[in-house]
Queue: 3 jobs
Job 1
Amino acid sequence: MSNSWQIKVPGSTANLGPGFDSIGLGLSLYLTMEVTLQNEWEFVHIGDNVPSDTTVETHLIYKTAQQVAKQYNASLRPCKVEMKSELPLARGLGSSAAAIVAGIELANILGELNLTTQDKLNISSQIEGHPDNASASVLGGLTISSMDEQGVVDTLHIQEMDAAFVVFIPNVELKTSDSRGVLPSQLERGYAVRASANANMLAASLIAKDYVRIGRYMEADLFHEPFRAELIPNYTEIHEAAKLAGAYGTALSGAGPTLISIIPLSIKEQFIEAMQKQFPTHQVVLTTGASAGIQVTTYSNSK
């Protein structure tokens, strides 16, 4: 049996406007782990976007792996995990979901659990509490998902999207718990009906790949963005500038503070150049939908 592996998990954006806690999109920004068996557990963090104040026992990936192993009555062989990430922490790009998915895959390999894709969808969504980011990291591409009271996830998966995406990452963190704290506990019925209709139209437009409508309904959210907007740097300015520059639409990425625009592939170079000039305090990144979800490479023992 091999003693080393690479685990690569895409980050994600969630909601895309009114698809609250349901719609996710895997992005070509990755969490990567090089895993090698050894006599004791060790995590080595490389570069930015990795936690600096964690021990093995408090590490989210370790805790997730051990939780899954316990669930399946398995024990995990200790290993060295060299970890690097293109996902800034607490920015709304699915860094925690990617870590959870990576932890599940680590347990799957070390404990020889033979988890199915459905198992991974269920477990990751149960740990996250909702299936949007987790499903997108497991599968890649676009996911529209629901999770029932037993924690079973049902997902509609669309692999390819004929568009590019631009994320506007501010130099501030926003914890999901803080962003959820501004949401109302109840919605008036007529308001909720309109919000639900907009979410339905977004999902239908995504399936139909009607990009004009996708952009329209991304910007028609009533569930969360009206309440979170004041927490987001340059929220209104980025929406307006992106639209003028040719974006189909712009929405919060997850709980924020990152914003994401969907744009035609034909304008990606001039769009990114214009946005970088207009918003120099943001990291403006051009990306695409991830073509695949979790990827595991097994190395020979001679590596």
Note: The domain at 4-159+290-299 is CATH 3.30.230.10 (Ribosomal Protein S5; domain 2).
Job 2
Amino acid sequence: MKKQIVLLAALLGGILAGNAQKKGFDYKFYGQVRTDLFYNSRSNSETVDGLFYMYPLDKVEDPNGKDLNDNGNSDFYTLYTRLGVDVTGPMLGKAKTSAKVEVDFRGSGTTYSLFRIRHVYFNLDWGKSALLVGQTWHPLYGDVAPEILNLNMGAPYQPFSRAPQIRYRFTSENFRLTAAAIWQSQYLSVGPSSNEPGATATRKHQDFIKWSSIPEVYVGVDYKRPGLIAGAGVHVSSITPRTQSETGSGTYKVDERITGISGEAHVKYTRNNWLVAAKTVLGTNLTQASTVGGYGIRSIDPVTGEQEYAPLRTSTTWVNVAYGKTWRPALFFGYLKGLGATEEVPYGTLGTGTTLDQLFTGTAELTYNRPHWKFGAEYSVCNAWYGDEFDAKAKALSSHTVLNHRLVVTAIFQF
């Protein structure tokens, strides 16, 4: 990591030094040093070895009846330290120009301590309308997200993703319209891991959106006034799980597609040190947004192995309340319910958390905030209901519970 920090510092230093030679440009350098210490009472669905925490894993019993996932775990990380630069440029016709480049050391997958692009985009602003091109927050994440210490920012209840996109916004008085075409980069859809018919082993890969040749689409509207934002949006995604199928008689070219329509509504109110925010999402195959879901196989061609699919639906809702400035206590509550597929899926399901029936998380935290500094502790309890029996649409009929207790202690220096 030391070499990478030196290289990044040299790069940003060169940019800032070049500012004296480029008229019409202005640069603002920023970043943070963040440390996270956490403890979980059992094994969980997660990435980055527990930093991006989702929900407790189901019970898996050994021959003696002991739960293999009943293991406490703890660690300490600095991987979400980040650096960035905001750029304002000269006018392009009647448009104000700006750009952002922001990176951290999170890496990807199981490769840590590497640069990772968080935000990289340019923006053209004509006043009432603006066009953003590049990678930033997915529109489903939007401008309303929980203010909590946990790095998952409320996932899997809150859609979480940064994605390449072309986003247009139009603002008129208190209303703002957002329309975006979105692709995938670091946060990916789940699909089959092989071309065999009926395969239910899964993987995440860019191929599923690339083979589709159709980006995700989001359209939403917000009502904004000082201290208040409220709005709703509709999201459509269409991916291609496979382009060929291997059967006993050979390899066949197949034409497969799974399309999902999702909707969300959100509200955020801030006044006199109070924050009250909430979001509800009816999600359809939103695995690329760090949530639970996927799709089921409803038919298989007996000759070619071509499959037809039905998306799995999930309902999520969260509420976040906080009060204060220097000392700031906060509460977060999230609830998730698996609603099953839109049609019968007799050949199995693909996705993440497809055996979950319900999920509930309650979180309490306290932060101490000073200029450039934040210190905080957060306790959360997550109860997961895993299905024992399922109907023909993969919806749980009965379930059992698994519980995880999590404690996070964080210190952040912002500059």
Note: Helices lie at 2-18, 207-212.
Job 3
Amino acid sequence: MKILKKVAVWLLSLTAVLVVVVWLVYQLPSFGGVSEGARLERLRQSRQFHGTRFENTPPYVSLLSFMREMKAYMGDEVREPQFEVPVVRLPAEQLGRPVAPGMRAWWLGHASVLLEIDGVRILTDPVLSKRASPFQFVGPARLHPAPLAIGDLKNVDAVVISHDHFDHLDMDTIQALARGGTHFYVGLGIGAHLERWEVPAAQIHEMDWWDSAQLRGVAIHCTPARHYSGRKRMDNSTLWASWLVKGPDHSAYFSGDTGYAGHFKEVRERLGAPQLAMIKIGAYGDTWLDIHMNPESAIQAHRDLGADILLPVHWGTFNLAYHAWEEPVVRAVKEAQVKGVQIVTPRPGEKLELGTPFVNQAWYLKPAR
């Protein structure tokens, strides 16, 4: 009995220590802030907020199965490139130049796109750190270098953030941009994270679905998505979103993370069809489709939007799912050909300019020896 009591005391002590350690870790700035006061009251006024959290309509029902997830995890797919990804490095002076008329985009990897539209420079979900993690010593590491270094960030007018997961909202990148005066357009509640990171309040613009803001003649529309949120746990404490950016002459849509649903058609009906659609195609699984659509659904989403050109994003940079590394883009290109969708597959850092022909290369396939 004495031994059992000693073991019980030891286990209780260990549990208490672990609880304290976890609590202390969660206090690190990288985990962000909490909505309080006026910010919390505004959250509660949102039509997407139900009880104590944001919810999809209809609600997301988890279909996760431990056995199915383990089977997928133990699959033999090659989940990292077996060759050096051909990254096109953006010269530091690129962001020192004035934004020329027209629209151009550089995919920087994952969901990060540098967009120049009608004189305004915008970044989507900028993550330029080595890891998509609250720590830079552990967590999913980049499968290729970023085409642009954090230290080279300057003259970026605006950032749009789709949600607060670590592969979409990176503290180090945000802080670097904030020091340069960048303005941040984010879903409800995400401003608490930015304030924790000492981003000036005047540079934070929290928006609900269908809210709009103006930036030097370019309209930034917060539009729906179907996902979830939380930096410490899946508590849906912040609002996920997609974004439509519309200038006098050009327009672009950014899906963020989302399952396939009717919001793509609704965006087109309310705001018109964009010229460029940056839509997620990667990080999906059979049990995730309600919040992480697959490549075929991405092609359908593009068609629902009525967009001219599809730039696939959210693939090829972090190992976050169970499918093969190149599978999302291979499936997306195949489906686009079947459905007559104009898809572009630039290398990370390669420029896409609307009005200029773009020649696709299957750079994501293993080079022949």
Note: The chain has one domain: 92-353.
